[in-house]
Hints:
Layout: E1 7-13, E2 19-32, E3 37-44, E4 50-55, E5 62-65, E6 69-75, E7 78-84, H1 87-101, H2 116-122, H3 142-152, H4 156-168, H5 171-185, H6 188-203, H7 207-213, H8 219-225, H9 238-245, H10 257-276, H11 289-308, H12 310-321, H13 327-344, H14 349-362, H15 364-372, H16 377-393, H17 395-406, H18 415-424, H19 432-444, H20 458-469, H21 479-485, H22 489-492, H23 496-508, H24 512-531, H25 533-543, H26 545-550, H27 558-573, H28 577-585, H29 590-599, H30 605-620, H31 623-637, H32 645-665, H33 669-676, H34 680-696, H35 718-735, E8 739-742, E9 745-747, H36 754-757, E10 765-768, E11 783-786, H37 788-805, H38 810-826
Antiparallel strand pairs: 1-2, 1-7, 2-3, 3-4, 5-6, 6-7, 8-9, 10-11
Amino acid sequence: MSDTRRRVKVYTLNEDRQWDDRGTGHVSSTYVEELKGMSLLVRAESDGSLLLESKINPNTAYQKQQDTLIVWSEAENYDLALSFQEKAGCDEIWEKICQVQGKDPSVEVTQDLIDESEEERFEEMPETSHLIDLPTCELNKLEEIADLVTSVLSSPIRREKLALALENEGYIKKLLQLFQACENLENTEGLHHLYEIIRGILFLNKATLFEVMFSDECIMDVVGCLEYDPALAQPKRHREFLTKTAKFKEVIPITDSELRQKIHQTYRVQYIQDIILPTPSVFEENFLSTLTSFIFFNKVEIVSMLQEDEKFLSEVFAQLTDEATDDDKRRELVNFFKEFCAFSQTLQPQNRDAFFKTLAKLGILPALEIVMGMDDLQVRSAATDIFSYLVEFSPSMVREFVMQEAQQSDDDILLINVVIEQMICDTDPELGGAVQLMGLLRTLIDPENMLATTNKTEKSEFLNFFYNHCIFFLKHYRYSWSFICTPSHSHSHSTPSSSISQGILLSFVDNYQTAQLLALILELLTFCVEHHTYHIKNYIMNKDLLRRVLVLMNSKHTFLALCALRFMRRIIGLKDEFYNRYITKGNLFEPVINALLDNGTRYNLLNSAVIELFEFIRVEDIKSLTAHIVENFYKALESIEYVQTFKGLKTKYEQEKDRQNQKLNSVPSILRSNRFRRDAKALEEDEEMWFNEDEEEEGKAVVAPVEKSKPEDDFPDNYEKFMETKKAKESEDKENLPKRTSPGGFKFTFSHSASAANGTNSKSVVAQTPPATSNGSSSKTTNLPTSVTATKVDHILYDSIYMNSNPQKQSRLVVAKSWVVWGVVGE
């Protein structure tokens, strides 16, 4: 298997008539029992898997091209090719094929597949007629030759016979000599016939003929023949373009003459295929498949030869990064690398992998940092194309380089931040470059293509880096994005300064290009919400990002308002209670509902998108958002009756209230009365009874009863001070309770305390203090409307005083504390 003679690349021809690489392996010809015949087997050199298993069919036409290629068709639209590393290996397999088919190995093609009608048509031909007799190559025979060439194109057998006759007699060179004579004599009729002849020979689709026609000696005369299309009033000037207009630029002198010749040949043949030859019809589309293959394999050879010349590539990189290099030279170097990377797409995966690793080793990424920051638009565009090839090939390679670079460079010169700057500062009115760069950024930050190994996780490392060093970098380039990203308390609430800032923003984004740019940024952020749950959540909440994004709901550009709405929709779609609390505390539905109401009765995309947002909340039964919407906005929305969404939300809200009431009614009566009783004296008696019952019911107590060892008078004086402080706090908390503004309605005010700012739940709860003593004394008990956090603090203070003063009652306190905490949590 290590024999390089048998080393091959397997190709298949796709629907676009392009060759797809299927892998590299070693070929052998073996008898396969399942196929009942000699077959070609190719096993992958990487893992030994079977890349190809093809029976050598006696009726299949095999073609040998360019000494190292064997091409054949296994079905009507399934073409295969084996590209050998060495000519000796190709000759060896070709002999095996010819042996199976009973053919002479000296032929370039074994046979043609023909249909029955064609067989009948040529049954009358004499068996001795092996080749077509060509007319003598003279000026007065050009019309006859043209008719002959045109007539054989419909027959595979006659095409093959004509190709053999042309090759054996050196006929093409004789025709090109006639072309020179016709041009000198200005023989227009003869030139028109030569056009038909040369075009017909190209459509014979034979690699051996192409090698003659595209040689340095003949190719310009072939192009000259194709200038004289009879359908044109005046001949084209293709030779003038190729020799004078199109200049071959050597960014670094190429010393290999074979490489130079291959580059020239490939460019000219590509020009013939793309520019000179007319677009083939449906019946002619297969006539030039070999021409496509000829160009393809030429490109593979060019890339391989350049890649092997390390001295050449090193010199190119040295000049590209040299500050002394002038702009014109650098532009040529970048364009060279762009074309070089485009050619590399023809390589098989293993070779392409080695190619890009070679570029990375030589320093392609640091070089791109330099050229992407240049003022020359053409250079930046070419650099962006090169960067896209690298990202498409290996996002991990780019991410690794950027993270290593961050340890040595400032944030503003990091490659990824240079990319962000180019995206933000794109001067194209259609933002073509910005769209391309945004797509590359999405690829780089997509967790789906990030690797996870035993020692490290690329996802966590790179996302930490991106959110610490890159995402906030966007704000430096546009006021609009700065407004969105920069935390500012003046924006958080309806203040005169926030109104002014929002007004400036909206007037700024009235510019269509700026609005498009913001739409791109919002698309990127929306992608982050979907794929970066932890990092983007911290960023959104720390920067209050959603509030600033929703300012764009007032934009005159509907597409931008929809982008802002889509951002919020993705957040709500996660059904994350952290996000839900952030939205309700910030009252962030208000700009969305205002946009819906301002839209009026217009039935458009904005209307549908807003309705879908609320319908999602209803269908998914997101209780916290449903309650917030109904309690704060239902009066404004109840008039919308063309959909049942808002009535459905109200129904869900009422059903949830009923369920809560049913749960409340199922609570044991003693707890329910303790929880909601407003008579302090009765509450005292119930609590005292509860403690006494706990002591008296021996065997049923949670802990063993303890004898009282201290009279009530021994209880510390500081308890009364504690209760006085507690009463003062209760009176303050009562002022913050919801105030009834109308029958059945409440007006809720959100405190801006530290707990609220930190996102803790500041909902008011009615709890009851446990009794201070258990000996029947009448201590005052009050209702404590306080937050959960405050209740926990009260428990800690109360426990400390009570247990220190009366250690024998610690066990009762455990039961009492459990009851109180249950009451708070149950709320």
